[in-house]
């Protein structure tokens, strides 16, 4: 659940991508943060309008489920780590 107030969102860009974003942001009289935030929100709202909120929520749910382990898989992974610790003399 999102925080009640603003929270940072970070991402990586190459030096060239950063320069492009900064240059265009400054050209439009905005900070890079404001420019990227506004551009991302415009695109996100367009995707929701085009695909529909239910499709977006389902895509988000599927993304969130990727890579999740079942309880049994977690238990097995923990047990394997425990065995490795004992093998190392810990």
Automatic annotation (TrEMBL):
Pfam families: TacA1. InterPro entries: Ribbon_hlx_hlx, TacA_1-like. Keywords: Toxin-antitoxin system. The keyword Heme does not apply. Belongs to the TacA antitoxin family. This is DUF1778 domain-containing protein. It comes from Actinomycetospora chlora.
């Amino acid at each position: 659940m999102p925080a009640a107030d603003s929270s940072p969102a970070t991402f990586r860009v190459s030096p060239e991508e950063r320069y492009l974003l900064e240059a265009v942001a400054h050209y439009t009289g905005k900070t890079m943060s404001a420019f990227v935030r506004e551009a991302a929100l415009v695109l996100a709202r367009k995707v929701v309008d085009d695909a529909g909120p239910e499709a977006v929520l389902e895509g988000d749910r599927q993304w969130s489920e990727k890579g999740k382990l079942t309880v049994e898989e977690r238990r097995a992974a923990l047990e394997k780590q425990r065995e490795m610790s004992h093998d190392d003399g810990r």
